[in-house]
């Protein structure tokens, strides 16, 4: 599978524009899935264009949680895409698109791609099957990474993590991972890099990650 970070607080690729928020594209098996949409639709679409990603190529859109920096680009994106299935977490928030299906429980959303279900009434994360376990894709990790890892491990050992980790500090939980790419709202990026120099990967818009 391949993950491309489209929208992030920092830019890994200097041709992309950074801004507070998160969005990434996941290509896995026959699916092309957009996870979160950043804060601003125009910037999401221009970063996608620079990365050569056609909006209409996306077949599934998953929103992690209803905060502006993750759902702000949704309207603009859907104006360019007439076919994608849209999955929104059922948090009780009224902010919901007419094309969206509400998600509460853990389930498969596309072949080999699962949602943890909504945790702590706020957020869902993605769990993608890879050869030696699963990869976890996180928006902000508001429910706490420990809870998210527990939910994800129902689908296999978590070997990789990409996305926002917020104020997570239980660093030992990441000991056995092959890849750690904390980005977006992660508070302790420097500490993670120091603790895990072998497996830490710098995030940012334009970063591409391949996992077998
Ligand atoms: Zn948030
Ligand atoms: Zn966020």
Walk me through this protein's architecture:
The chain is built from five helices and 13 strands. It has 212 residues and is of the alpha/beta class. Strands 6-5-4-3-2-1-13 form a seven-stranded mixed β-sheet. A six-stranded mixed β-sheet has the order 7-8-9-10-11-12, with no helix packed on it. α1 (41-50) links the parallel β3 (31-35) and β4. Residues 65, 67, 140, 142 line the site of one zinc ion (ZN). One zinc ion (ZN) binds next to α2.
Characteristic terms for this protein:
single chain; 212 residues; alpha/beta; Metallo-beta-lactamase, Chain A; 7-stranded mixed beta sheet; 6-stranded mixed beta sheet; 13 strands; binds zinc ion
What is the chain-wise order of helices and strands? Answer: EEEHEHHEEEEEEHEEHE
How many discrete domains?
A: 1
User: How many distinct helices?
Assistant: 5
CATH fold category name? Metallo-beta-lactamase, Chain A
Helix-residue proportion: 10-25%
| Whole-number mean pLDDT | 97
Radius of gyration: 15 Å
Bound small-molecule species? zinc ion
Ends apart, CA distance between termini: 6 Å
Q: SS-based structural class?
A: alpha/beta
What fraction of residues sit in β-strands? 25-35%
Report the sheet with the most strands, covering strand number, pairing sense and barrel closure: 7 strands, mixed
Lateral strand order in the biggest sheet:
6-5-4-3-2-1-13
Low-confidence stretches: none
Specify the CATH class: Alpha Beta
